[in-house]
Every structure is written in C-alpha cells, then in structure tokens.
C-alpha cells in the first residue's frame, strides 16, 4: 500500500504569492454569529478565463498552413451537450436553473484561433463505444456561435478523425475513457489521408498525410514511463513495465517518421 504526505502552505504564504499568478487564492469569508439575516453573504466566484489559452494576435498569412496542438485532458466540458428530456417539460419558478458552463465550446476555441487548418487534440478521453460523445464533437465543431459565425464556407467547417484506445489490457481505466487523440481538419485544405499505426493500440498516434503540401502531421500523445506493469496486448501477460513500453514507443515513432523522410 502506498501512502504519501503533503505539506500545505500557510495562509500567509498563499497571500504573499506574486499577483501575476492566476488564479489568486480565495479568502474564506467569516460570518458573524450575531448575524440576524437568514440570507448569508454570497462568496466571490473564482474567475475562470473564457478560453484556456491566450488569444493569437498574429494575422494568418496567405498560403500558410496553421497547425495548433492542445492537450485538452478530457474533451467532454467543451462539447455541446444533448438537450435533456426535462427541457421539454414546463418549469416552475422555483425550479433551479442549470448553472452555465464555465468552459467555452470547442467551436469557440476554433473561432478564437481564427480557424486553424488543423487542430491536434490529445487526451480526449472518449471510449470507443461512446458514440454519443463522438456525435456531439461533430456537432460542436460545426455549429455556428452566432449569426455572424458563418458555416457556409468550407474554411470554417471541420472533419474530425480519431484514434481511440483499443487495448483490452493496457487502456482499461475509467471505462475506457483514457488517452485518445483527435485531429480536426478544415475542409478547404487539400484532401488528406489519416491513419493509425499497428504498433499503438492505446489511442496515442494518428497520422495525417497532406500530399499537396508535402507534409505529414503526426498527432502524438506519448507514453509516460512508470514502474506500472505493461501487458501483452494480445495475451494480457505482463512483459515489462511502462518504462520499457516508453522506450519501445519512441523507437517505433522514430522509425515511423523515418519512413516519410
């Protein structure tokens, strides 16, 4: 059994942190025991940035190929949820309304980045059997944000390509919602081919070939080396640890890149 201890900083240490750090620590609000009002003061809400990145201020150049990469660490908060069946029922004035999401939609991220040609996402954490989330992703990336967000042009429409975990012995945590990469390709660029590799079954590598651009783009979520066991994908027998798998993964990735040189 593994145990660990952690020493937390004092309140004084937290309050002395530089102001440039974000977000600042919240201070607990003391409530006087003599307060007669039944309504307690509402604590301040932690400010969450509308987009988890800085806005790109560079103007896209003509004939350029803009590729963005983002380890999203779970794509679910950035998808447009399907309407609940309760939304079709009349609501009473006392019924609590759902709290607005603190996360932007994936479409809002694409808009903020001036619709890059390719967006590489890692750790999307979608199980292969989760067809609902896959469909939601397709809707989200192509649903207009407003009347000003036109989808009549292919330069603002995307196709999603996936590499999801299919290893029954090494990618089983959280109901299969682990790892996984997704490549979003804008529809106005030259037709491309996407493919997975036979040496990765954990949903870590997706290759996009752009022959008209003379470019091959690899979307990679690399292996983290640990002492946890690594099992043979076919038999389930332990054949090493994750350090061994990491070294093998890097060697296979090197050879894959060399085949395109």
N-to-C series of helices and strands: HEHEHEEEEEEEH
Number of helices: 4
Q: Total strand count, please?
A: 9
Write down the overall mean pLDDT: 79
List low-pLDDT spans: 34-50, 84-88, 91-100
> Going across the major beta sheet, what is the strand order?
1-2-4-3
Strand content: 15-25%
Task: Output the radius of gyration.
Answer: 23 Å
Tell me the distance between the termini.
48 Å
What does the overall shape look like? globular
How would you describe this protein?
A hairpin with a 4-residue loop joins strand 6 and strand 7. By secondary structure, the protein is of the alpha+beta class. The model is unreliable at 34-50, 84-88 and 91-100 (pLDDT under 50). It has four helices and nine strands. 16% of the residues lie in helices and 17% in strands. The N and C termini lie far apart (48 Å).
Structural topology:
Blueprint lengths: L10 H5 L51 E5 L34 H7 L5 E5 L8 H12 L15 E6 L17 E6 L6 E3 L9 E6 L4 E6 L8 E3 L6 E4 H17 L3
Parallel strand pairs: 1-2
Antiparallel strand pairs: 2-4, 3-4, 5-6, 6-7, 8-9
What's this entry about, in short?
The protein has 261 residues and is an alpha+beta fold.
Primary descriptors:
261 residues, alpha+beta, four-stranded mixed β-sheet, three-stranded antiparallel β-sheet
